[in-house]
Amino acid sequence: MDLETLQAKCLTCQRCPLWETRQHVVFGQGVPDAEVLFVGEGPGQNEDQQGLPFVGRSGQLLDKYLFAIDLDRSKNCYIANIVKCRPPQNRDPLPAESEACMPWLREQFRILRPKIVVCLGRIAAQRMIRPDFSVTKEHGVFVDKGGVAFMGTFHPAALLRQPQNKPLAFGDFAALRDKIGQVCTHTY
Length: 188
What we know:
Layout: H1 3-10, E1 29-30, E2 36-40, H2 45-50, H3 57-68, E3 78-81, H4 95-112, E4 116-120, H5 122-128, H6 135-138, E5 142-145, E6 148-153, H7 156-161, H8 166-183
């Protein structure tokens, strides 16, 4: 199965109650041979309206960080979320919602076969790296899981609320650039 086929199936998903309030499924965005996968927690209002991940203010900030290290969602990376539908009032996804949606992300991961996964924020990092992962203490540190380098960093929306952490996040992206140079074959 390819990403296009998987997306077509995902667009009709009714595995959890979030489908009842969504405008659009936010499947993901990027290139099908991406070696770097970014994973957030779930779509917000702008993403739900447009059907694309990270398109609001936090997405604009993410794009600036990507640009700074020569990444671009249309050229050499992929962006997805734990849940594909917006939780009401942008609340954290409930465990049952995350669990219902994880097969979609697992299949995206299987198709992409990324060499690096960057977890954007606590929810994604605790789901994908370790349940007790602390973004404030462990951001920018790579963890090997089955030959894939995982790293957690601050969620762009959190950086908008706490701009004092922007230099730390930028350091994480600089470390990501270095890691890409070490393990990726066609990203740059």
